[in-house]
Amino acid sequence: MAKILVVDDEEHIRLLYSEELSEAGYEVITAADGYKLIERIETEKPDLVILDIKMVDYNGLDLLQEIRNKFYNMPVILCTAYDTFKEDIKSIAADFYVIKSFDLTELKKKVATALETHIPSS
Amino acid sequence: MFEAEVNPEDISKAEFVVAIPSYNEADSIAFPVQQADRGIESFLGNRKSVIINCDNNSNDGTKEIFLGIRTNTPKIYISTEPGVKGKGRNFRNLFQKIVDLEAEAVVVVDADLKSITPKWIKHLGEPLFQDFGYVAPLYVRHKYDGTITNSIAYPLTRSLYGRRVRQPIGGDFGFHGKLAKVYLESDTWSEAIANFGIDIWMTTLAMNENVPICQAFMGRPKIHRAKDPGSDLGPMFRQVVGTIFAMMIKFYPFWSQVKWSKPTSIFGFGLGETEMPPPVKVNKETLFQKFQQGFKTCTHAWENLLQKETFNKLREVKKMDADRFDFPTNLWISVLIDFAVGYRDKVWKEDELLDSLIPLYLGKTLSYVKKTERMSVRESEEFIEEECVQFEASKSLLMQCWGKGA
Fold first, then answer.
1. Would you list which residues of chain B are within 8 Å, Cβ to Cβ, of chain A?
2. What pLDDT, in 10s, does the model give residues B147-182?
3. N or C: which end of chain A has fewer CB within 10 A?
C-alpha cells in the first residue's frame, strides 16, 4: 500500500484528503505545516507528498525545492486555491499540481499517475 | 599558422572550466568570455579555473580575439585540424581536455550569446559542486524561438527518457567532469553528433547514465542569432532529429521501461524580475507554402514511411486553407513515431528521410504559431506542456509500432 504524506495547514483539507485517499486504498499521514518536513520524510518514507503551496508560516514552493534537492525522485503534487503560482518558476519542480476542490477525482488521477511513473536505473 | 592548442599560462590542472565552442565568431566571442571571467571571479573565485575556446580553426580571427581579451582567468585555445568542422568535433577535443585537466565541473556557453551575465556561470556551475551531474538551462524564450525544441526535442526526449528537461539542446549547460570520460568512450558517435547533434546527444547520454539533472534558471532570455523557423533549417534539423532517432535505437532497453515523466530540481533564483525575450518573426505564408510543397516532393517517401491512416489524415490537413490550418498534435505524434521506426528500419535513405520530415515539421510549426498567436509566453508554455502529456500518453502506441517494425 502506497503511503502519502499530506502537508496542509487547513485541518478540514487534511481530514478530507485523509478520508478519501484512505478509501482509495492509500495509507495517509499528515502534517499541519512544513516544520521539520525533511526529517519527517526521512523517518516516515512516504511514497508521495501532497503539498499545499500557501501555508500560514511556510511557502510550499520553497519546501518543494528542499524536498526535490534532498529526495530527487520523490513524487510531489502541489495543491493550491489559485493557479497564479505557475508564474513562479519553482513550481515546475513538482510532478503535478491540482487546484483545490472538494471533488478529489483529479487529485486521485494525478496521485495514481505519479505513483506509476517509472524511470529505470541505468 | 595552425596551432592545435595555445596554452599561454601552461595550465595543466583545473577544477572548473568554462568552454566556448566556436566557428568564425570573432565579432561575438569577446562578450561571453568577459562575462564568464566575471562570473568565475565573483562566484567561483576559490576554484582553480580556466576558460577554453574550442574552435574549428576559424579563419576570421576568433583565436586572436579570444586570446587577446584581458581576463583574470587563464585561457586555453584548442582547435580541430584545418578543414575539420562541426560543433561536436569541438566538443570531442573539449572532452579530452577536461579529462587531461581532471576538471570537476564544466560550463559551456554559446559564442554568439548577447544576454549572458556572470550569474549564468554561477547558476550553471554551482550545482555541479552539489551532487548534480548535468545542468540544463532554463530561460524564457520567445514562443517562436526554438521550434525544433518545442515540437520535437523537448516532448520526445521527455516522453522517451522520462525527465522534463525543457531545453535539451540549449547550447548553454553544465556537466560534471566525470561525464567527459563517458562521452569520450561512448560507442554512439556519428557524423550528426560531430555537428549539431552534439547537444541532444550529451543530454540523452546524461539521462541514460541516470546522473542527477537540474535545470538552472538564467533570469534573462537567451538572446543570440535567432532564426525564423521557416529558414536555414536543413543540416541542423537533420543532425538533431537524426541523433534523436539514432539514440532511440541505441537506448531502447532504457526508454522502453520509462513510464510518464518526472521533473528535475530547479536552481537559480533571486534574479529579480524576469526579462521578457525579444519577439521572433515568423512568416506564416512561407510555412504554409513549404508544407504544401512537401506534397509535391515528398509524397513518395511519406507513402513508404507513414502508416496508411496517418498518411490519409495528412491529406486531409493538406486540403485546409491557410486560415483554417490545423496540424493536430496526435497526428504529429503518429508522424514522428512512423519516421523513427522508418529510420531504424532504413526504409528510406537517411538524409532523404529526415529532409522529408521538414515540410511536416513546418506544417506543425504553422499550426503551433496559429494556436499560440494570442497567447502570452506563459500560456504558450502551458500549451507545450499539454502537448508533452499527449506524447507521454502515446508511449504505448510508440511501443506497439516499434515492436511491429522490428
1. 138, 161-164, 166, 208-210, 212, 215, 217, 254, 257-266, 269, 274, 378, 382
2. 999 999 999 999 999 999 999 999 999 999 999 999
3. N
